[in-house]
C-alpha cells in the first residue's frame, strides 16, 4: 500500500465531473479529502491523501493527467516569517487545518507548525510574502 499527499488543480470545465468517485470505483483507491475549494465556472483545488496499490495509484494518476488535472506533491515544509507578517488575516480562510490562525487574546496571527500539512494554500493569499516553502 502506498500513500501520497497531493494538491490537485482542476480546469474549470471539469470541476463538475465525478473525478473522486472514479478514482475510488475504477482504480480502487482510498481518497481522504483534506481540503476542497470548488466554485462553479472556476478552477477547482483539492488537497487529498490517496492510498492504494502501486499499479492502481499509477493508473489513477494517469487518469487525472488525461483530464488535464495538475498534480503537485505537498511541499516539504512551510515557514512563516513573523517579522514580515502584518497580521492582515488574509491567509486564514485558506488554511484547512487552522495551522495559521488568529489569536483572539492578542488579535495577532500565529502559526502552529504541528498542524501544518504543507498544502501551500496560504502562500498565494499572503500579499507580504510572509509564508514560504522550505525545500
Ligand atoms: S501550508 Fe498554509 S494553508 Fe496549508 S496547512 Fe500549512 S499554514 Fe495551513
Ligand atoms: S496573509 Fe501574510 S501578512 Fe497577512 S496574516 Fe497571513 S501571513 Fe501575515
Task: Please sum up the structure shown.
This protein is an alpha+beta fold and 135 residues long.
Which features does this protein show?
single chain, 135 residues, alpha+beta, 4-stranded antiparallel beta sheet, two-stranded antiparallel sheet, 8 strands, elongated, binds iron/sulfur cluster
Question: What does this molecule look like?
Answer:
The protein has helices spanning 19-27, 54-66, and strands spanning 2-10, 30-37, 44-52, 70-73, 77-80, 100-103, 108-111, 131-134. Helix content is 16%, strand content 34%. The strands form 3 sheets. A 4-stranded antiparallel sheet has the order 2-3-1-4. A two-stranded antiparallel ribbon has the order 5-8. It starts with a strand and ends with a strand. With 135 residues, the protein is α+β, with helices and mostly antiparallel strands. It is elongated. It contains 2 helices and 8 strands. The structure holds iron/sulfur cluster (SF4) (2 copies). One iron/sulfur cluster is lined by residues 85-91, 109, 125-126, 128, 130-131.
- Biggest beta sheet attributes: 4 strands, antiparallel
Mean pLDDT: 90
Termini separation comes to 26 Å
- What is the tally of beta strands? 8
The percent range for helix content is: 10-25%
Q: What structural class do you assign from the helix and strand content?
A: alpha+beta
Low-confidence stretches: none
Strand content: 25-35%
Number of helices: 2
The largest beta-sheet arranges its strands as 2-3-1-4
Bound ions, cofactors and other small molecules, one mention each: iron/sulfur cluster
Shape designation: elongated
Q: What radius of gyration results from the CA coordinates?
A: 16 Å
Secondary-structure element pattern, one letter each: EHEEHEEEEE
Amino acid at each position: 500500500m502506498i500513500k501520497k499527499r497531493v494538491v490537485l488543480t482542476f480546469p474549470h470545465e471539469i470541476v463538475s465531473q465525478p473525478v473522486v468517485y472514479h478514482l475510488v470505483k475504477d482504480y480502487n483507491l482510498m481518497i481522504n479529502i483534506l481540503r476542497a475549494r470548488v466554485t462553479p465556472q472556476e478552477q477547482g483545488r483539492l488537497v487529498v491523501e490517496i492510498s492504494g496499490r502501486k499499479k492502481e495509484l499509477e493508473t489513477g494518476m494517469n487518469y487525472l493527467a488525461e483530464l488535464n488535472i495538475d498534480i503537485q506533491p505537498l511541499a516539504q515544509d512551510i515557514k512563516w516569517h513573523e517579522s514580515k507578517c502584518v497580521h492582515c488575516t488574509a491567509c486564514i480562510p485558506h488554511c484547512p487545518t487552522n495551522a495559521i490562525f488568529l489569536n483572539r487574546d492578542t488579535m495577532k496571527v500565529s502559526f502552529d507548525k504541528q498542524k501544518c500539512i504543507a498544502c501551500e494554500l496560504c502562500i498565494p493569499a499572503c500579499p507580504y510574502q510572509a509564508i514560504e516553502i522550505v525545500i
